[in-house]
Specification:
Elements lengths: L12 H25 L5 H31 L38 H6 L4 H8 L2 H9 L3 H12 L38 E5 L5 E5 L53 H8 L1
Antiparallel strand pairs: 1-2
Helix pairs in contact: 1-2, 2-6
């Protein structure tokens, strides 16, 4: 009796996730092959990225499978353990040494699977996230979000994460209480303040600052008042000055002959 491969999808969460990762790898391989067949293809430039994504997808499936096995076995930690003491180092590390910076990933950020190889399978990942078994797994193991969030960002053109993959808002750190302000000294208590003044002889000296009742302003120096009867009457205003009168021009003398003005022409002929 011949056996035929069943075409029905697997029922478990891990097998379905494995089928999804395999489909992403096949779609990525097809996109890489198309870049090799094109005349203007740049397959040598994306070859290192292709192998990096291959290793990343394999590691994603392995981490998801191991975490799900711990979930089924009931060995998930209830809360992350906080390290109380620093890890001893063989090289004698001290607190003054800078912290090690996490090495940046060689895979560029963004939907690199979609842009570089044309893998359009973010809708399949969304359908997998809507599965009740996946929701129950994410609710019991929030660590799975660290595996699925980078995978979503490499597949989906939308940078916004689905509701199930979003991190809860971080609680705000309580601010330390402010120290109470020192109470103001009561008026008249403590040593008096001093100020610098000029004496009548022109020398500079120090004298205690006068104290006034709390909440009242110091009295202003009053100007000396003058009896209006002692004031002299103001002089009357001066009359406005008139402009000087210019004499009228003299009319020409009709009795004078024109020959009397010939001396003007002789001036120019010299």
């Amino acid at each position: 009796m011949s056996t035929h491969a069943s075409s029905s999808p697997p029922s478990g969460l891990v097998p379905r996730f494995g089928v999804f990762i395999g489909a992403v790898k096949r779609a990525m391989g097809e996109g890489f092959s198309l870049r090799q067949l094109r005349v203007d293809g740049d397959s040598p430039a994306v070859t290192p990225l292709f192998f990096l994504l291959e290793r990343y997808l394999t590691a994603t499936l392995r981490r998801f499978t191991a975490l799900h096995a711990r979930f089924l076995a009931g060995t998930l930690a209830a809360a992350p353990c906080k390290r109380l003491t620093a890890r001893p180092s063989d090289e004698g590390a001290t607190a003054d040494q800078p912290k090690t910076v996490r090495r940046a990933s060689a895979i560029p950020p963004g939907p690199v699977l979609l842009q570089a190889f044309g893998v359009r399978m973010f809708s399949h990942l969304q359908a997998l996230l809507d599965d009740p078994e996946m929701r129950a797994f994410l609710a019991a193991a929030p660590e799975a979000g660290r595996i699925l969030r980078p995978l979503w960002r490499k597949l989906s053109p939308d940078p916004a994460l689905p509701e199930i993959l979003r991190l809860p808002p971080r609680p705000r750190k309580p601010r330390p209480p402010r120290p109470p302000r020192p109470a103001k000294p009561a008026p008249g208590s403590g040593p008096p303040r001093v100020r610098r003044v000029t004496l009548p002889d022109g020398t500079r000296s120090w004298e205690p600052t006068p104290c006034y009742p709390l909440g009242e302003k110091p009295p202003r120096a009053r100007r000396p008042t003058i009896d209006p009867c002692l004031l002299e009457p103001a002089p009357p205003p001066a009359p406005p000055r008139r402009p000087p009168v210019r004499p009228a021009p003299r009319p020409p003398n009709p009795e004078r002959r024109l020959s009397d003005y010939n001396w003007i022409g002789r001036l120019f002929m010299r």
